[in-house]
Amino acid sequence: MPADPPGAAAAAPAATTPSLLEAARRLAPLVRENADKIDADRELPKPVFHALADAGFYLMAVPRAVGGLEVDFPTYLQVLEELGKADASTAWTVSQGANWATYAARLSRKAAREIWIDTPRSVVSNTPAATAKAVAVPGGFRVTGRQPFSTGCMHASWMAAHAQVIENGEVRLRNGKPEVRYCLVPRAQVEIIDAWHTKGMRGTGTHTFEVKDVFVPEERTVFPYGAPIVSPGPRYKIPVTLAFGAGDGMIALGLARNCINAFLEVAGTKAPRNMHGLLRDQAISQSAVGHAEADLRSGRAYLMQAARQIWDEATSTDGPTVSLDSRTNLRLAATHAIHQAAKVVQSLYQLCGATVVFDGHVMQRLLADMNVITQHSQARLAHYEIVGKHSLGLEIDESRL
What we know:
- This protein is α+β, with helices and mostly antiparallel strands.
- It has three domains: about 5-115, Butyryl-Coa Dehydrogenase, subunit A, domain 1 (Orthogonal Bundle); about 125-220, Butyryl-CoA Dehydrogenase, subunit A, domain 2; about 240-395, Butyryl-CoA Dehydrogenase, subunit A, domain 3.
- Helix content is about 45%, strand content about 15%.
- The strands form two sheets. Strands 1, 2, 3, 4, 5, 8, 9, 10 and 11 form a nine-stranded mixed sheet that branches. A two-stranded antiparallel sheet has the order 6-7.
- The longest helix has about 35 residues, at about 285-315.
- It starts with 6 loop residues before the first helix and ends in a 10-residue tail after the last helix.
């Protein structure tokens, strides 16, 4: 990534919590007017990315001790919601980059500053599966592997290669299990493979990247789970997977709000064939909008309640994490929000008829985006089962909590 003037990114940490939410609302029109281009190009245009980075959104979860913003969790989610109202793909790239940055609290402060503060407009693009190999060598690792599903990699400064550690030709064990690390590699040292060809959420640019025998010093590596905290704070008590889930839920809710607004425009202009009056004059449309508002508002209220509950616990207790009850509550609220949002989008899309089936209509893009969100692991219906088992006093797998 070309170097930018030093002041471009340095101004971001001065932002306050209220100004971040105001900035999201201020930048929403820019995002919205570029939404079709973002979808077509499968990446954020530079002016949009620069505006998001300069507002400090990618530093929202970076510790203040390092130079980041470390905003409270409920505000973080509201920022994602505001961006999601403008374009879900854009909000998703912010969520992926910003939430992964909680690992800055688990790296040395020197390494964290190098990655997120000293690098102008820095974003780390990650990958979910440990499909790379990190061969242990003196001082660090030599990393090789192909890494799929790397959201926002086209504007990233660093890539988090997800790798199993190999030592003396064998997988090294940690606590009896294969040792896995994220290895931070400069963007210039990886190859991006154009692999993100989808019908929705195209603008996330979730391509594949490949690392070939790149040396990564140990101080630029971090364990995905159980890494010790270097820069403590309540934000880092919330498991990263849950924060991703909550962010996905808020983005889905923002998308559904966008859909309701788009439907109101269609309903106010379309005269359905063989029916009297406009679409908005039909009782079925009026009922659908009422149900959509109830579904959207209830899903949002539950998710924000769960987010505030887990944040209150994180800020008021001394332990390293939050309770299982709070974690299962947030998981349920996040999953439910995604499926409530999908219900809203599907119901309103069906009422619009053939008017919205063509490429270029916002309702067509919103439906495609929503369908991709529901396929993400954070939307798994199995989450309901996990929460039900916990409520019934049964033993559960806490890996998603």
